[in-house]
Amino acid sequence: MLDVYAPVVHGIGVRDHKEFAEDSVRRVARHLERASWRRDSCPTTCDGFAIGHVHLVDDGDRSLVVDPITWFDEIRTPSRWRAAWWFLRALFVLCAVHLLVNGQVLLSAPSVAGLPRYVWRALRAMTWILLLGALTIALAVPLTLAVALVPRARILATDALGWTSDPETREKVIARVTSRVVATRARHTVLIGHSQGGAIATNACHVLEPATTTLVTMGNGQALLIPLRASRGIPWTSFAALVGAMIAYVAAALVIMRTLLLGAIELTAAVVRGLALLVRAATDPGAAPDHVAAAGAGIVAAVEALALSPQLFLVLIAIPVVAVTVLVYARLLAPIVRDIRHLLDPAIPGIDLCARFDGVSHPFAMLGPPRRVATITQSASLLDHMLYFDNRAEVLTEIERWITGAGGERTPDPRASVARRRMRHLVRSLRAARAVVALAAMAIASLLVPSALAAATIGGAAYAVMTLVKHLAWRAVQRDG
Ligand SMILES: [Zn+2]
What we know:
Elements: E1 4-9, H1 17-23, H2 25-34, E2 37-40, E3 54-58, E4 63-69, H3 80-107, H4 115-149, H5 151-165, H6 167-184, E5 188-194, H7 196-205, E6 213-218, H8 222-230, H9 236-283, H10 288-307, H11 310-344, E7 350-355, H12 362-367, E8 373-376, H13 392-404, H14 414-448, H15 452-480
Helix pairs in contact: 2-13, 3-4, 3-5, 3-8, 3-9, 3-11, 4-5, 4-9, 5-6, 5-8, 6-7, 8-11, 9-10, 9-11, 13-14, 14-15
The structure holds zinc ion.
């Protein structure tokens, strides 16, 4: 009898079984071999596992099979325009989920001691809301056309579409995983899922034996996919309201941010001018009263100009618009959000690894069970969702920990958390270095070249180079660590 069975379930966009096995199972196996496991050959009686599976045994002679499970062949292909329409709907629902998650930050009441942290988090959430809302509105038409016209883009949309909107496909995909686990009859199962594979594995867990099952997910898409599924029942009028609310929101947020930014710049300039006048007052005592009066008048004028500006009037309108928009969202999505937390928690041991810059798992990191969710640094880049299996320090170490600990008494192994902390420090230093180098390049360039645009371009190029350096340094650590 097999001691531990570790099926690995892929996310959207995979269409090649062997490639997936190489990218996931081989890497997991190689990492296990660096720990207490060694590779074993395929026994003559071996049957029922997929191509690319790997046998291992550990020091205590426990047997393990890591098995790549693909489900893409279960997905039915819809017409291109049906896929495009579905994608357009999904894009706005996904954006709404992100906005709602960030909106929750604003709604949480801070304590007095926690006020600075709250303000920082609220500003960050506002920026995310603005960025995501603006991006969605700007990209809605081009991306929808891409889904209709570019086959590769349509595959990504169709995978999620089949899983969320086609009950028959959904059942088949879940059964693909559960039937393999049941047929294997191992003493313990460690289900591993990436992205949508994490959502599939989470659903499979509901029908598996909790006492002998562990779930490890990376970049779990469950918190995005549940609302997509639930949104099938939302009528098109509510959908139109959602789009309208989003446009109002972005417009209002832009007005507020622009006014705050310009106001801050004008006030700072007035204060600097005032300070200069005060310095002159100190050096020239004869004319001191005049200078002090001029400094005061300057600041008062700036405050007056701001208080009477039409922008401030716009902000006074914009703030209630934002509040109403949040209410529209909250009302529209309240029934979905109510059940979401429950659906995200399979109530079994394991971990959900969510990278800080992974847009797919970000809502999961906010709404998922705190006991299971672990936020990791990954490479802190927009590629984070694709890099989980490359991440030895934070991800493969964690998978090895749960496989090795499967079925035993679970004494937490500090290795994984130490590795996570080290990565956080490393990536933080690299990002700080990138900021310093980019600013320094821009400052030096602005002294040497007359055009501000050229200086900004040089700063941007330095930023891009340092981004590459950060990525290469991250790769190097994953190779040697
Ligand atoms: Zn075999």
